[in-house]
Each structure stands twice: as C-alpha cells, then as structure tokens.
Amino acid sequence: MRTNALGYNSPMNEFHYPKEEQERALLVGIERPDATWSLESSLEELRRLTETAGAEVVATTTQRLEKVNPKTFVGSGKAEEIAETCRSLGIDLVILDDELTPSQQSNLEKAVGRDVKVIDRTALILDIFALHATTKEGRLQVRLAQNEYLYPRLRGMWAHLASNRMGGGVGSRFGEGESQLEVDRRIVRDRITSIRRQLKELEKNRAIQRQKRQESGVFRVALAGYTNAGKSSLLNRLTDAGVLSYDKLFATLDSKSKRLNLPDGREVTLTDTVGFIQKLPTKLVESFKSTLDEIREADLVLHIVDAADPDFEKQAKTVDEILNQIDAGDIRRVMVFNKIDLLEGAQLESLRYRYPEALFISAHEGTGIDGLLAYVQQAAADTGYVFQVLVPYNRGDITSLAHSKCHIISEEHTALGTRMKVQVSAPYKALFAKFAE
Questions:
Q1: Which single residue of 32, 70, 158, 395 has CA 20 to 30 Å from 98?
Q2: Is residue 112 helix, strand or coil?
Q3: Angle at the Cα of 314 (from 310 to 315), degrees rounded to 5?
Q4: Helix (H) or strand (E) holding 207
C-alpha cells in the first residue's frame, strides 16, 4: 500500500520515515591546456567526491576550453547540451569540476532550469566537510567556509526569487527582493563575525594545550597526506585510536591525537589530520588553519602516500604545496609509501630505487611498521639535549620533572644523589644544565 508524503500508512497505523531519494548527478569536466592533472583523473576524483556526498553519478560530459566563458564557464553550446542531458536523464544536480563565479553559477542555473541544482567542486567539498565534521571546532570551521562561500552568491539567489514573485519587466528590478538581499547580507556577515569570534576562543584553548605539549617535552608526530592515503589506518595500526577508516574521501576532518610508546620506552604523540586534495579551496584551508596548526607545531611530519595510486606523484606535490602554504614546509618530513601490499614486486623495487630516503609500509597488513617506528625513534633522539646529571636527594622536584617531562636514558641511585642520563627539550635545557656532571 502506498504511503502519503510523510510516509504515514493509515490502515496499519504505523509511521515510517520516508527514504530520501538519491540525487542523480551530471559531472562536467573541463580540459584546459594549462592543467596539471589529466581530465580523466580529475573527473574520477570528482566522481568519488560526489558518491561520498551521497549522490549517484548518472553521466559525465567534458569540453576542451582555451579560456572559460565569463558568463557560463562552459561554452553556450555546451550549456544547451547540459540542459538537454538534464531533461533526458532526469538529472537533479550538475557539478562542475572547477570553481564557478557567482554570476556563472546563476547563469548556468537559468540555462538548465530551476529544478536542477548547479554547484561547483568547492560547494561539493564543503557539503562533504559538513557531513563529516564531528567536533565543535570542526563544525564551526565548516560553517565559516560555507558562509564565506555563500555571501557573494546571495545576489544571484535573490534575483531568481524576485523574478518569480514579480514576473520580471518594469518594477522587478528593485523593491522587496533587493531589501531582503540586504537583510540576508547582514545576517551572513554577522554570522561570519560570530563564528570567527567563537573560533578565536577555541583557538586560545588549543594554543594553551599546544603550549602544555611543548613544555611537556613530548616529541610530536603529525600524519599528513592526500585524502584516502591511509593516515587513519596507520593511526589505528600504531595505537588503539579506533578512528573511522574506510574507502571514502575526507573520512577524517577533525584532528585526533594519541600517545604512542616507542620501542625504547619513549612516549610521543601521533596526530591524524584532515586529508588534502587537488583544487582544495583556499578559503577552506584558511578556515581549517587552526586544525592544521597540529601539523605546523609538529616535530616530525609523516607524509603518507598511497603507493598504489597512479597519480601518487601529483598527490604528493599537492600535499607539499599545501604544507608550504600553511608555513609547515620547513618541518622535518619523510615520505611514507603506504599500501605496498597492492604493488607487484617490480613496482615496489622501482619505488625504493626512486625514493631511497622514503619508508615503505602496509598499514593494513603491518608490513614495514617496525622500520617506521625505528625512524620515529631516531628522529626523536635527534632532537632535544642530552645531559649526564647528578640530582641531590633533596631536589626530588627535579627528579620528578625528569620522569614526567623528559626522556630518561639511564638512571642509578648513588650516595650523593640520583645520577641520570636524560634527554630534555629546549624549555628545560638551562634547568638541567645546572646539575650536569
């Protein structure tokens, strides 16, 4: 028996939540002479983004452009073709693989019809971020980026509504729509200001936490990489993090830190961060800078690379560019090729030859993990200052500090006091130097 619009089946006297229908999407790719990524790989990534957002990719269309059309981005003939495809295939959603200006988006919406949504790659990524943000800070960062994206597009949105109400022509150019536009602009501006204020408060708390970590002397390791490279899988392999790890883009947005005990007994922190992607909107990077500070404050960055992806070199270059963009380019960094279990022997040997300084692992099978831990252990040992100290028994505070904030290499109790070989971070260098033998 059919149910009504609310899913209510009266004879059975039961309430069923209606199942939301999957949107049918048309992807539009543009081939340009100055593109660094192939059209095929870019569209494949757009397809995965679309599926991650919950839509079904029904069809794709492409066009080669020397320069974009200022009115509709694509050529006028392609815009008509897109409109016809939408009608014939029952498309709900058109997604362009590049960022549209507000006017281009508005003009394309007019061309395909008001029943079809037109969005660009940026809007799609924002939608996925909104789905996956879990912490308060993560949700605020997404809302900030969304509102900054929305603000310049309000005029086009209200132009449509004003036209619908007033029928176009004389008298439709001013009035209610325009006044409502100004109201909405103020609302969005106020919302942006409010979100930034809240983020600043959260950033103060995060800065205090970072300061405490710095003073603790604990070596900090950050996982960075292209989305879906396997950072979360590695964090789960090394710790009991239990973070979400599956084959979807941007599965992790909010940074997550766990403590990791190295073979020599040293304790370090390991932080998973948001994955990067090509054409990642600048405003989104800006919005997530406080989260990305976990990378900037690290002592070591493990750049996780999907060894099985044919575009891994371009992905790695994208990650390097973003790390430089957030002023993390000078931090010690090592490439860690993950998913080597998916490679043939010759492929792996070729990678080892081309990247002799890199590490090679399989987070899924555990291959190469011992070598990775040994590298982190050596990197931690290379930092800080090592002292041979003799601490009198009446300075138990110094001994306690060594146990809680430093790495003790050796320790013995003598008649004169506690003799220790200890590695300390910069904040405690002067203090322990006073007890050096």
A1: 158
A2: helix
A3: 85
A4: helix 176-216
**Residue 436: both structure tokens together:** 């050096």
- Rounded-to-integer distance, Cα 302 and Cα 358, Å: 10
* Angle made by CA atoms 235, 238, 240, in degrees to the nearest 5: 80
- Dihedral of CA 349/355/357/360: which sign? negative
**Distance of alpha carbon 86 from alpha carbon 160, whole angstroms:** 20
Give dist(CA 45, CA 53) in Å, integer: 12
> In sequence order, what are the beta bridge partners of 261?
267
Q: Which two tokens stand for residue 388?
A: 């041979």
What residue has token string 């983004």? 49
Asked if 69 and 31 count as a contact pair (C-beta separation under 8 A), the reply is no
What's the Cα-to-Cα distance from 31 to each of 37, 65, 103, 316, rounded to whole Å?
A: 9, 6, 21, 22
C-alpha torsion 65→71→77→80, nearest 10: 130
In 10 A of CB 287, how many CB atoms?
27
CA distance 268 to 213: 10
> How far is residue 429's CA from residue 390's CA, in Å, rounded to a whole number?
15
Amino acid at 420: M
Cβ atoms 222, 295 nearer than 8 A: yes
175 neighbors 122 (Cβ within 8 angstroms): no
